[in-house]
Predict the structure.
Amino acid sequence: MKDLRIFTLLFCALVALASCEESDSVGEFDNWEERNTQFIDSIAAVARANADGKWTVALYQGLDESKVWGNEFYVYCHSLQAGTGTEHPAYTDSVSVNYCGRLIPTDSYKNGYKFDSSYDGEFDPSFDVPVAFKLSGTVPGFSTAVQQMVKGDTWEVYIPAKLGYGNVATGYIPAYSTLIFEINLVNFGPVDTPLPQ
């Protein structure tokens, strides 16, 4: 009888320990909204410091900066390669771009889960064919960033959830997700005008 009680106590202790371990583990998307807010706040601090001189902080069009609080209405853009153009696309233009979109880094996806891309593997401008679409048909953060670019620019763009899909999950993108895009602007022009590559 004594052996049975000891076995029962050991069994209960192991179950309790296993339960604690399970509750302490963090799921891929646990606390997702909070983690994304912290991530965009850290990017905003780096972008505003602009230590390397390659950051652009763009306010979503139509907003009065004096009335905006927090980081969720800004897009944070880091230049990876400067273009040679001098003009910027308009919101009503079509754009020709190479792009790759991903989420913030997680345990399973150290570089962030890639949810969309116009090319396979690593970007190769000599090989990859850009895609064209209406800039007005993209999420607000994407169109805000691209309107700051010139032909030939390649930027890494950080879009807060509010300027992405907000509190709505879509496809492989959970609600409250920061969107990270690498965008190479090849060309732009009026809608329904062929864009040379």
User: Anything to note?
Assistant: The longest strand covers residues 179-190.
